[in-house]
Amino acid sequence: MAGTAFLFLNGHYHPDDRALVVRLMRATRPRPLVIAVDGGLAFLQRCGQRPDVWLTDLDSTPRIKKGFIHRTEMLLFPRRKDKTDGELALDYCRRRQVAAVTVFGWYDRAYETDHLLGNLLLGRGRAVSGGTIRIRFLDSRQEIIPLRDETLTIRGRRGCRLSVVPLAGVVRLTARGVDYPARNLPIRIGQTIALRNRIVADRAAITVAGPALAIIGWKGPRESGK
Questions:
Q1: How many CB atoms lie within 10 A of CB 130?
Q2: 218 neighbors 157 (Cβ within 8 angstroms)
Q3: Max avg pLDDT among 28-37, 125-134, 215-224
Q4: How far is CA 31 from CA 43, 89, 138, 198, 203, in A?
Q5: How high is the pLDDT of residue 219?
Q6: What average pLDDT does range 169-186 have in this prediction?
């Protein structure tokens, strides 16, 4: 059983992501299970971090340095299949009984919006037999956390942007420690009232009734108010 897994998809990586990943790899104990998903292997090579598992269908294989994956388990899948590489990687984490998954390289800059949305919605189906997998999508500028009927406590992010996106017909939101607090506020899917809030306390919290995405942004250009 593995406690934590880091998943590296074949998406966009900001130049600052390398330092973020190296720092998290050093700070996470016990060491996380490192999974390269197809072309995500290229980013790990740039970071000098060898994956434990390489899940691939060989459709976007990078040039591999000699000996880099000598001790890496390779899981080969056909190119024609019923699931994306990201979903297959999450299935693998379930089989390994991973408790928490951090996904890197989920962001898209190749106009493959279907993959972008599909990746983010993988978190909605995170329930597994006997428990759940905690999933977050992370890069050096933002963090996205799928939630369902739960409270998220946010520490040390004063000044950061906070948005909540409902994933069902109506989600109820309670928010504390933010510029626009809320108490049991109903938000219909498609409404934008819960976007671009701002954290104003050292400890903030949001509670959602229903499925939603919490998006925390802490770098980038200065944003205007709501």
A1: 6
A2: yes
A3: 28-37
A4: 19, 18, 18, 33, 28
A5: 61
A6: 97
Give the three-state DSSP class for 183. strand
Pick from 56, 96, 95: which is nearest to 76 by CA?
A: 56
Residue 164 CB neighbours (<10 A):
23
Distances (CA, A) of 191 to 57, 127, 161, 171: 38, 26, 18, 11
pTM value is 0.89
- Can you give the length of the chain in residues? 226
Distance CA 168, CA 117 (A): 15
All domains in the chain, ordered by first residue: 4-140 (3.40.50.10240), 143-217 (2.60.120.320)
Alpha helices by DSSP H, the chain: 17-27, 41-47, 85-95, 113-121
